[in-house]
Amino acid sequence: MPTRANAVNKILSDYEDFLANNTFFEKREFKIHDKFKVVDHEIRHWNTIDQQYWTRFKIGSKLLEHYNVSPLQYFTMKKKDIDGNILLFKFERPYTYGYFRNDGSLYKVYMPKNSDKKFIKVQNYVQGLDQISYEKDYLIITSSLKDLMVFQKLKIVNAECIAPDSENTMISETIINKLSKSYKSIIVLFDNDEPGIKAAERYKHKYNFSYVVLPMEKDLSDSIEKHGVDKVRGILLPLLKQAL
Fold first, then answer.
1. Is residue 109 within 8 Å of 38, Cβ to Cβ?
2. Tens place of pLDDT for every residue, the chain, 244 residues?
3. Does 130 map to a domain?
4. CATH number reported for the structural domain that contains residue 224 in this entry
5. Of 94, 121, 148, which residue is a domain's last?
6. Distance separating the N- and C-terminal Cα atoms of the chain
7. Which is the most buried residue in 6, 28, 75, 133, by most CB within 10 A?
8. 133 in a domain, yes or no?
9. Is residue 110 part of a domain?
10. Strand, helix or coil for residue 231
């Protein structure tokens, strides 16, 4: 009769075989679920389709490098099934990007063309926290790393940005308390749809932060893509000043 020890040994043996033989299970129609964890990835070189995607939002190589965004050749996900077997799936497709911390650790995978799931969280991290200087007067909490990056194009020199894992994830009190001591004011700039506004209201209720609703496209990056930097800046800057 199989024992727990036998099952553990089989899992370890199977995983060692996987590492030794570099075998992958690939299923292109497989849908990503939260029980799967990213266990491996490989960075590739930038190509033309990457350039076409990011430059739509006025995001160039310097911003991507500053915020540690890299294109991925593939990433591998793993989980144990109910029988204790290890399942491995390799995803290798265009428009796949890794978000990394300054220490080189991967914290999120971004797949903008994947309708099923665009983001895969690898570890907890407040996006942009490694890059802020704590020397500006104001801090803006945006909805995503992409919005955070495009905010830099607005040239609002006395403000810098962070972003939570998602609008539905509240930044912890420990981090907020530290940030509040470093800035004159903190303002929330989330998507202008119902979930975004509700998320901004939660920050106002919990931390008493003012929030801004940009009356343009759904989010800041889409607004800049459609209307350009100058027009967005002309509309957003007075709203930010009102919120102070």
1. yes
2. 555 555 545 555 555 555 444 444 444 444 554 478 999 999 999 999 999 999 999 999 999 999 999 999 999 999 877 777 888 889 999 999 999 999 999 999 999 999 888 999 999 999 999 999 999 999 999 999 999 999 999 999 999 999 999 888 899 999 999 999 999 999 999 999 999 999 999 999 999 999 999 999 999 999 999 999 999 999 999 999 999 8
3. no
4. 3.40.1360.10
5. 121
6. 69
7. 75
8. no
9. yes
10. helix
Q: Are residues 91 and 155 in the same domain?
A: no
**Domain range holding 95?**
4-121
Do 112 and 215 lie in a common domain?
Answer: no
14 and 86 both lie in a single domain: yes
Identify the H or E element spanning 196: helix 194-207
User: Vertex 149, ends 145 and 152: CA angle to 5°?
Assistant: 145
Phi then psi dihedrals of residue 63, to 5 deg? -65, -45
Write down the residue that tokens 């500053």 correspond to: 66
- Reported for 83-88, long-range contacts at CB under 8 A and 24+ positions apart, including other chains, are 84/7, 84/8, 84/10, 84/11, 85/10, 85/11, 85/14, 86/11, 86/14, 86/15, 86/18, 87/25, 87/36, 88/18, 88/24, 88/25, 88/39
- Shared-domain flag, residues 206 and 169: yes
Residue 5 per-residue DSSP state? H
Containing H/E element for 179?
helix 173-180
Tokens of 224: 């800049």
* CA 155 to mean position of chain CA atoms: 22
Strands (E), 61-165: 69-80, 86-91, 97-100, 106-110, 119-121, 138-142, 159-162
Do 96 and 43 lie in one domain? The reply is yes
Q: Is the Cβ–Cβ distance between 12 and 80 less than 8 Å?
A: no
Alpha-carbon span 208 to 205, nearest angstrom: 6
